[in-house]
What does this fold into?
Amino acid sequence: MDLLLSVPGASPEEISRGIAAAQEALERAGFTAEQAADAAFAVEGWDMNGAPEDALDDWDCVASDAWEQANIAALEACCAGWPDDRRPTTVSLELLIEPETQLADRPKALAMLRERAEDDKQREFDGSDGILAWRVAADLENKPEMRDLVTGITVAFTALKLAHFYPDEQIEPKRQAVHDAINALEAATEKPTSH
It folds into this structure.
């Protein structure tokens, strides 16, 4: 399975270098990207549930550690030579599961979000609305205000999707809230023009 690496300000060459290093780290550890990512997810869930006894096996722990090592390798390779004030402390390494959503550029992500707001059959809570919102803010994801704007889109979409399950619920105000959230994110991520 392919990997996706997001590092604000990184060039395509640096991203490729980071992905290659992550893949090499996983191969050295003897895990596929999917195995390691799934194990990391399992360990995180185990930890969030209060670390219950006998809920995790050693394989999950070792595979989860391999995922962490892949993240470190990606960071080191991608950001090699960067000055300390520009260098992030972590990177976003994930499995490439839904390329159309995960690789959408800013205009495509905005269009997809607006299209989803109009689609009354769009009722799945799969996280793709948040992924698209982060694609809009891809170069600014380390700014705290972006987190608030992306959360605003996720909350607005959740309210809209839930409204479809209740016959007496008014849909249009919820749909407008989604459009308002999208417009706010678009305005906040617009690059200033030179005139």
Remarks:
- The CA atoms of residues 22 and 187 lie 34 Å apart.
- Helices lie at 12-29, 33-48, 58-78, 99-102, 106-118, 128-136, 144-163, 171-189.
- The first helix runs from residue 12 to 29.
- The mean pLDDT is 86.
